[in-house]
Amino acid sequence: MSNLSTVPEIALPARGSVPCCPPLISAELSTLDAERLANLFKALSDPVRLRLLSRVASHPAGEACVCDIADVGVSQPTVSHHLKKLREAGLLTSQRRRTWVYYRVDPDVFAALASLLAMPERA
Asked: Which of these, 104, 111, 81, lies nearest to 12 by C-alpha position?
């Protein structure tokens, strides 16, 4: 289960809908939204977290067992810590199945981030 409370409300669309937010260049962020987005980007700023996120996102099954993605050059407790940070930021969701935990990328959060960071096309 995902904890999306740290992701800014403006950046989270309803499931299956197009993100509602205008790009950063068209509207100023509130202080609260800026703080929430900073937490999300902070979660993305660690190389180990980016590698873990990439392994989950690129996994052929669309989800990955922690047993399949944990070999990133750090100890298992450190992997768990980084996966927890990614979950808390709302970038990953997780589901326990017996002794293993399976992770999925939250596509709504990624779509919202893409929309938020979109630059207009130049003519």
From this structure: 111
CA separation for the pair 48, 61 (Å, rounded): 21
**Burial of 103 from C-beta contacts in 10 A (0-12 / 13-18 / 19+):** buried
Residue 27: both structure tokens together: 């509207």
Contact 63, 70 (CB under 8 A): no
pLDDT digits (tens, 9 = 90+) for 80-122: 999 999 999 899 999 999 999 999 998 888 888 887 887 767 6
Among candidate residues 84, 90, 83, the one with its CA nearest the CA of residue 106:
90
Q: Tell me, what DSSP letter sits at residue 24?
A: G
Residue keyed to tokens 């399949």: 68
